[in-house]
Write a structure and sequence with these properties.
Its EC number is 3.1.3.5. By secondary structure, this protein is of the alpha/beta class. Helix content is about 40%, strand content about 20%. The protein has ten helices and eleven strands. The strands form three sheets. Strands 1-11-10-9-2-5-6 form a seven-stranded mixed β-sheet, sandwiched between helices. It has a two-stranded antiparallel ribbon with strand order 3-4. It has a two-stranded antiparallel ribbon with strand order 7-8. The longest helix has 21 residues. It is globular. It binds thymidine-5'-phosphate and magnesium ion. The site of thymidine-5'-phosphate (TMP) has 17 residues, from helix 2, helix 3, helix 4 and strand 5.
Length: about 290
């Protein structure tokens, strides 16, 4: 590989247009770390999809702990997951068709959670007791970006309070971090009463990007974007970047690989098939910075 990035030659790496990827990385390298920002999804992008054959929980699923919710609530949230997750990843439906169904899923789950009177002071323990896990190589990823003062915007349809706690417990909550997510709203006694702001689900990240990104001053004047996601909906996370110059998108294809391979290769610049590591993003970053 001419770019001296041997990780891109791995069998798990798919690229529609290798030469375009090379040119983009080279342009980003010439512009340097001062022109770069990283925008990443959280669940199943920064966290692992599976470990030792077991699914790793998303931020919503981390709440499945008796400290926070009862058995009946667990059962209902699981039923909703079984109904809506196959729709979320269905290659035969468009994002437009999925939109209203995702709103339905998130709204129902958030209503169930609010009924449980979840206590803020129990969240850290629930995260500790969960099997949440960031991808292998996460520390190099977070630390390098902080070291080079490259802003990292995490844009998640998960739960902000939970993902912050996962990042904190892994000791990588650095000052270059910005988060857009669904945050819990607690009453004065520390009990969950609502979710703040406009709901973010997998297929409305464009609206969230346009709404929030303009307010994040640290992201301005950084026209080069490395975008990481695991859903086609994640591709719109950079829509709030004003006057972008080079955007390199990396997609983790974790599930339904054969059904979705074609659409992922047509949509992301680099597709990583069943890769539980940050090796490729880390190699690209080490070349650029
Ligand atoms: P992300 O934007 O950080 O990837 O978070 C959204 C993911 O959360 C999405 O892939 C679906 C998943 N999810 C659950 O696992 N359980 C739920 O109850 C809900 C509403 C979403
Ligand atoms: Mg995700």
């Amino acid at each position: 590989f001419p770019l001296q990035i041997p990780e891109l030659a791995k069998g798990t790496v798919l690229m529609r247009e290798r030469s375009k990827v090379e040119e983009t990385i080279q342009a980003m390298q010439r512009a340097g770390a001062g022109s770069l920002q990283v925008i990443s999804d959280f669940d199943m992008t920064l966290t692992r999809f599976a470990h030792n054959g077991m699914r790793v929980p998303t931020t919503h699923n981390i709440l499945d702990n008796r400290l926070l919710i009862n058995e009946d609530c667990t059962r209902r949230i699981r039923e909703l997951l079984n109904t809506y997750y196959p729709i979320e990843i269905d290659a035969s439906r468009t994002a437009e068709e999925k939109q209203p169904l995702m709103v339905e899923w998130w709204t129902k789950v958030h209503e169930l959670l609010i009924q449980q009177k979840i206590r803020k002071d129990m969240l850290a323990r629930a995260v500790k007791e969960s099997s949440a896990m960031l991808r292998e190589g996460y520390k190099v990823f977070f630390d390098r970006l902080a070291e080079h003062q490259v802003p990292l915007l995490i844009f998640s349809a998960g739960i902000g309070d939970i993902l912050e706690e996962v990042i904190r417990q892994n000791h990588v909550f650095h000052p270059n971090l910005h988060i857009i997510s669904n945050y819990m709203d607690f009453d004065r006694t520390g009990v969950l009463q609502a979710f703040k702001g406009q709901l973010i689900h997998t297929f409305n990240k464009r609206e969230g990007a346009l709404l929030h990104a303009a307010h994040l001053r640290e992201l301005q004047g950084r026209p080069n974007v490395l975008l990481l996601g695991d859903s086609l909906g994640d591709l719109t996370m950079a829509d709030g970047v004003s006057q972008p110059q080079n955007i390199l998108t990396i997609g983790f294809l974790n599930d339904q690989v054969e059904e979705r391979k074609e659409s992922y290769v047509n949509s992301f610049d680099i597709v990583l098939v069943k890769d539980e590591t940050m090796d490729v993003p880390n190699a690209v970053l080490s070349y650029i910075t």
